[in-house]
Design a protein that fits this description.
heterotrimer; A mainly alpha (about 240); B mainly alpha (about 250); C alpha/beta (about 260); A: about 240 residues; mainly alpha; elongated; B: about 250 residues; about 0% strand
């Protein structure tokens, strides 16, 4: 089964029929709510780090008052969406791949086929919808947490003027940046889901437990790499 | 909440005592050098492409966004003086480690987890071969050494892609780029990057071994161990990264 | 052959079906007919294509050559990678129920939801009707109180019986059983055999069972086949097969190491 065959059939399944709603809701909750704890923790530290690094870099030539600008561009445009995608992608993608691979090796997918239910419609389509809708929400949430952390670090730890920080932030970050972030989120979400579903779906009964491990590993690595590369391409298109 | 905190510290305690056990096993042989080298070789090959593909775009994006900021002040010549420390000290080590966790960590955890659920770990123990010495230590040592090596490569790659997006793409003066590139990089940056990778790589190997050996629940459990290895190490890497940045700032390095 | 006279096609006809994976030939020109309301047991050593045969019947695998007629419709003609053919396959498959080797129950659903699943997907029955039907099926397999348990809480034999209940949920015309007795103790496999006979008697379903258990074949089959190295060695009514002196068959029934089937 080639990746392109899989993508083509997944797209047909995703856009020609209404996905089973209970499955969609379950995966939306799994992907979205399930990732919030992890995402909050990691983005908070990333936001603090971003401010500290920016400060360390700018203080060398006396530009520490430009921290708001740096955190706005570095964080909102780049770091938070792609980090949310990589972190949530690792978690969500691994879960999707592991659960589908497990269904394959225990013949549950074949059981669906024999019951006359298309696994593409029943299993793949709701996962694609759920993750591509959950990811932009997670990216937007990451923006909020990350900025709050950067602000905290800048103002309370590094002694940057709060008014100045906020003024610069407002000056540089517009609605179009947030919209771009949401757009990136949808693309990342779909990519993570399709890669994970592909690796999970491709496992076969004879692969056994090992197959689940391999599918999980590939889903994590491929989705992380693809999200980072896609981010570069999207940034080049959106900001050049 | 309280239960969650208590569970977290219990887990931390278990990992620490596991680390002590691994250290003890490393000091007292027998050591499986051939297996360690084979594993390091396999993991290095598998990590090379994903790590490179993950770090190269970061240099590109820093240049891309940096140019737009520095242009506002007419100072785009000094872009490279910000790019280099960010890559050396921060992004290359962190991303190389995250990708080693994703590739090597999850595959080690999955391999050990598969052995565990198939009963092969018990079989080793019955044959009086210590599973920690035979399967955990080689993975730990391999990760310990491949991560800094990969980091050297990715640092170079990050700088090259940063250069590409700054000079040919955005039209920054090539002379100014190279002249400013090393103006802000010190030997400390280099060592900090390598030191972090050494530490993070070891953590990847350790956590992968720990979670792999604790795998239960059949095939689904193997997936969970592989997944948790990545999640735990990413948490560790980000938190440690922040603490190191703060420390360096305080020390004025 | 009275069926042909009445104009009703046999349940399943395989017409020189061949299948190979790479250079490894798994099925070699297999032809056979399964009558309506019969129990066919296909015996054979492990790794001789029994499972592949079963999968060809429902179009999970597509033979390289030959025809697979299910109630007169050729399944082998349908390419599962083509959307229109997939629809056709799904329609034909609704006449089948399948018992998988390890049950293949959905882990995230309770036993009751597992059995109800085919009805929810394919019928417009009300919840009350579905519940009544689920209870009926679970009672038939001897697990009347298991509906709210999860598959992970059940033993292997119980999981298989639940899978049986799910396989017959839509009261299909043909039930396929992949090694129903593997991994079960003798008493539990006997229970499953009784169940097959019982369902066959009361609901008149056709059964295709693959197995390496000769005792099971003797007990339930009215037709026995023996597959070895991809070839159908013998096939016919049980009494006739049991009386035959075919060496491979004798070897299989006598659990002997010498004979045409060689593993070493």
């Amino acid at each position: 089964m080639s990746f392109f065959w899989f993508v083509r059939h997944a797209l047909v399944a995703q856009f020609t029929r209404v996905p089973p709603l209970d499955q969609f809701v379950r995966h939306m909750v799994d992907a979205g709510v399930g990732s919030i704890g992890l995402l909050t923790l990691l983005i908070f530290f990333a936001g603090l780090s971003l401010a500290v690094q920016g400060y360390a870099a700018f203080v060398r030539f006396g530009g520490q008052e430009f921290l708001g600008l740096f955190c706005g561009i570095g964080g909102i445009r780049e770091l938070y969406p792609v980090m949310a995608a990589v972190i949530c992608g690792a978690r969500i993608g691994a879960n999707l791949a592991a659960s589908l691979a497990n269904m394959q090796i225990s013949e549950q997918v074949e059981a669906l086929e024999v019951m006359g239910i298309d696994p593409m419609n029943y299993l793949v389509a709701p996962r694609l919808w759920a993750v591509s809708l959950a990811m932009p929400l997670l990216c937007a949430y990451a923006d909020v947490v990350g900025l709050a952390a950067s602000y905290l670090a800048a103002v309370h730890q590094l002694g940057v003027n709060p008014g100045n920080f906020m003024a610069q932030l407002r000056g540089i970050v517009g609605w179009e940046d947030l919209a771009a972030g949401v757009f990136k989120g949808v693309a990342f979400g779909w990519l993570v889901a399709i890669v994970a579903c592909y690796h999970g779906y491709r496992s076969a009964k004879r692969d056994g437990a090992e197959g689940v491990g391999i599918a999980t590993n590939r889903a994590i690595v491929h989705s992380a790499v693809l999200c980072i590369v896609l981010n570069m391409i999207l940034s080049a298109i959106l900001y050049v | 909440m309280i239960a969650g905190v208590r569970r977290f510290f219990a887990l931390l305690g278990e990992i620490l005592s596991f680390a002590v056990e691994v250290a003890r096993c490393m000091i007292q042989g027998p050591r499986f050098w051939a297996e360690t080298i084979r594993l390091a070789d396999v993991l290095m090959r598998r990590c090379l492409i994903p790590v490179g593909l993950a770090v190269a775009p970061v240099g590109a994006v820093i240049s891309l966004q940096g140019v737009s900021v520095f242009r506002m002040f007419g100072a785009d010549g000094i872009l490279s003086s910000m790019l280099a420390p960010a890559i050396f000290r921060q992004y290359s080590p962190a991303l190389a480690s995250v990708m080693v966790a994703a590739q090597a960590g999850s595959s080690i955890a999955a391999r050990i987890g598969t052995m565990k659920v198939r009963g092969q770990i018990d079989a080793l123990a019955v044959m009086s071969v210590d599973p920690i010495r035979y399967v955990v230590v080689p993975g730990f040592v391999a990760c310990l050494f491949i991560t800094p090596l990969l980091n050297i490569l990715t640092t170079a790659l990050g700088l090259v892609s940063g250069w590409f997006f700054a000079v040919p793409v955005s039209g920054i003066n090539p002379g100014a780029f190279t002249a400013n590139l090393y103006s802000q990089v010190t030997l400390v940056d280099l060592w900090v990057g390598i030191g972090k990778c050494f530490f993070f790589g070891g953590a990847v190997g350790l956590i992968a071994g720990f979670l792999g050996l604790r795998t239960t629940g059949g095939a689904a459990g193997v997936g969970k161990s592989a997944n948790n290895t990545v999640v735990y190490t990413i948490i560790l890497i980000l938190v440690a990264d922040y603490l190191v940045s703060m420390l360096l700032l305080e020390l004025g390095l | 052959m009275s069926e042909q006279a009445s104009g009703r096609p046999p349940a399943i006809v395989l017409d020189s079906v061949s299948k190979a994976f790479g250079s490894h030939v798994v099925l070699d020109e297999v032809s056979l007919t399964v009558r309506h309301e019969s129990i066919m047991v296909m015996l054979g050593p492990s790794g001789t294509g029994k499972s592949v045969l079963l999968r060809c019947l429902v179009g999970l695998l597509r033979p390289d050559k030959g025809r697979v007629l299910v109630f007169g419709e050729d399944v082998a003609r349908l390419d599962p990678e083509r959307p229109r053919d997939r629809e056709e396959l799904f329609r034909i498959r609704r006449r089948f129920g399948m018992l998988f080797q390890d049950g293949a129950l959905f882990d995230d659903m309770t036993v009751g939801e597992n059995v109800a699943f085919p009805m929810r997907m394919h019928t417009s029955k009300s919840e009350a009707e579905i519940r009544a039907s689920v209870d009926d099926k679970l009672r038939r397999v001897g697990l009347p109180k298991a509906a709210s348990k999860f598959p992970s809480e059940l033993s292997g034999g119980m999981r298989k019986r639940v899978a049986f209940a799910r396989a017959i949920a839509l009261e299909p015309d043909i039930v396929l059983c992949d090694e129903p007795s593997s991994g079960l103790d003798p008493v539990m496999s006997a229970t499953l055999d009784e169940l097959i006979l019982e369902l066959h008697r009361t609901l008149g379903m056709t059964f295709v069972v693959i197995s390496h258990d000769t005792a099971e074949a003797r007990k339930i089959a009215d037709t026995i086949g023996l597959l070895a190295k991809g070839k159908l060695v013998t096939y016919g009514p049980t009494e006739q097969v049991l009386r035959s002196n075919h060496p491979a068959l004798r070897q299989f029934f006598e659990r002997s190491t010498d004979g045409p089937i060689q593993v070493l």
